[in-house]
Amino acid sequence: MAILEEVVTPFITLTADEVRGLVKMGGKSEQFCRQTLVVLDQNQDSLPPSLKLEEVRRDLAAFDAIRPRLLRLLEVLAKMQDTQTALGSDVLMASLEGYALMKMFGKGEGLEALRQAMAVRRPTKAAKVVAAV
After folding, report:
1. Residue 101 CB neighbour total at 10 angstroms
2. Which of 69, 65, 64, 53 is nearest to 30 (CA)?
3. Which top-level group of life is the source organism from (predicted)?
4. In the chain, alpha helices (H)
């Protein structure tokens, strides 16, 4: 993780408001941008100095370099999220089963307060899950 954090040190962080304020390049607009850059490249002598074509080229190259890495990271993150979801499900199912057993054996006194707290936190789902047990 430290290596990954070191790699992304030069990357920027945007607030939610900043993200909302940006014009975002999607699939269709990406093709427009690429084609426009080709035309601009062919007509550099007509461009005002304020249009920094070289800077735009560097941005596009960085954009292209980040994409495959981002896709790989998203795949890794999806696997991690799926694994955490499955592990959490296993723990919850075992806990519910254990709760039902303790209740059946008359040893669920200490667990009743936890069940009620769970029902307060998630009234509809918790009530259905506990009722099923």
Report:
1. 12
2. 64
3. Bacteria
4. 2-7, 16-21, 27-42, 53-104, 109-121, 123-132
Give the Cα separation of 98 and 104 in Å (integer). 10
Query: Is 53 in contact with 47 (CB distance < 8 Å)?
Result: yes
Tokens, residue 80? 């991690």
**What does the alpha-carbon distance between residue 19 and residue 24 come to, in Å, rounded to a whole number?**
9
106-128 exposure pattern, b = at least 16 Cβ within 10 A, e = fewer: eebeeeeeebeebbeeeeeebee
The 10s digit of each residue's pLDDT in 75-108 is 999 999 999 999 999 999 998 898 888 888 877 6
Phi first, then psi, for residue 107 (nearest 5°) are: -120, 30
pLDDT at 128: 61
Give the list of residues 6+ apart from residue 126 with CB closer than 8 angstroms, or none: 115, 118, 119
